[in-house]
From TrEMBL:
Source lineage: unclassified sequences, metagenomes, ecological metagenomes
Keyword line: DNA damage, DNA repair
Region Disordered: start-end pairs: 164-185
GO BP, one annotated term: DNA recombination
Family label: Belongs to the RAD52 family.
Stored InterPro entries: Rad52_fam, Rad52_Rad59_Rad22_sf
Organism, scientific name: marine sediment metagenome
Name of this chain's protein: Rad52/22 double-strand break repair protein
Matching Pfam families: Rad52_Rad22
Amino acid sequence: MTDKLTNDDIIQLRKPFQPHQHDFLRGFTYVKEYAVTERIEGIDPAWSFEIIDTRIDHNRQQVHVTARMTVRDSTRDGVGSADMQWMGKTKWENKKKVSVTDAQGNQIMIAANEAEKSAATDALKRCARMFGVGRYLTELRSNDNVGNVQELTRWLKQNFDVDANTPENEKHDEPPDTPANYTWT
């Protein structure tokens, strides 16, 4: 017997997230990774996500990941990418390093595999969007002036009648055991 997605599952997957479950980066609004995975786990605790292919484009200094997500025997594929700058080998653990920009716009050095993890997270979110998770964000336009939680709260209320104080959506502000200053992307 297979466990297929129901109409109720699809409605749950498509529900807008609470404003605090979003991040804002370079003019875009994103759903935090923990919120995406919690939403999917609420529908199917046995969901799966697999990386099908990882490619490094040295000319464009990008990592591209192709992935597959399965929720209740329904499968969707997605592609994620992350920018990187190769910095060569350094004394720091003698690993390849990349320079990336964090959520505050600061240049930071990270191990090369961080770009791959970032691309995989991007692919995860894109697979989830194929199930309807976070798809409402594609309706955001530049003239909506949404660049922070307060502006997103206004936009969600205006367009989706989402109340930021709805108790059913207030599990927590951050994933458990995560420092409050860590940004999920």
